[in-house]
Amino acid sequence: MNWLLFAVALAGCGTDEHDVTLPSDAHYKVLFNPWPTMGQCLANTPDPADCAVPLALSLCESGRAVFSRNGMAEEGTYAMDDADQGQSWIATIVTRRSLTWFDVEIKALVMSPEHRWEMDDAPGVDCAER
Q1: Which pick of 5, 50, 67, 110 has the fewest CB atoms within 10 Å?
Q2: 3-state secondary structure of 92
Q3: Burial of 2 (0-12, 13-18, 19+ CB in 10 A)
Q4: Whole-angstrom Cα distance, residue 21 to residue 71?
């Protein structure tokens, strides 16, 4: 789990009014169990705690980004990198303490694509609230 301790710390960076964001709010959760989806994990694991979601990411249409780790949220901003050149849609996420990139097409952090993420239908973040 140390892979999420981001490598680059920044201060004073963020998105501006010209940055591109997703057309609607998107919420993701990471899966550390051997099952490809949360539903399959719950159906095949005797203890639902084994399917716990310690990491979550919300990318709000407004440009707000929220990383949650074991219930502790860190807020920041994000902007989508240019996808016009045939590249994946990459969200560049800036928080008070970190910088990271998330590929919204393959649903993975760019620096650790082996960890599976899925859409979160019951996110802990309400993008309408601030």
Answers
A1: 5
A2: strand
A3: exposed
A4: 25
Instruction: Determine the Cα–Cα distance for residues 98 and 7; give it in Å rounded to an integer.
Output: 7
d(C-alpha 120, C-alpha 58), whole Å: 9
DSSP β-bridge partners for residue 90? 103
DSSP 112: B
* Greater pLDDT, 26 or 31: 26
Distance CA 67, CA 86 (A): 27
pLDDT in tens, 53-97: 678 999 999 999 998 887 788 999 999 886 555 555 888 988 887
Phi, psi of 17 (to 5 degrees): -65, -15
DSSP character at residue 81:
P
Beta strands in the chain (DSSP E): 26-31, 55-59, 64-69, 72-80, 90-95, 99-103, 108-109, 116-119
CB-side neighbour CA atoms (13 Å) of 73: 13
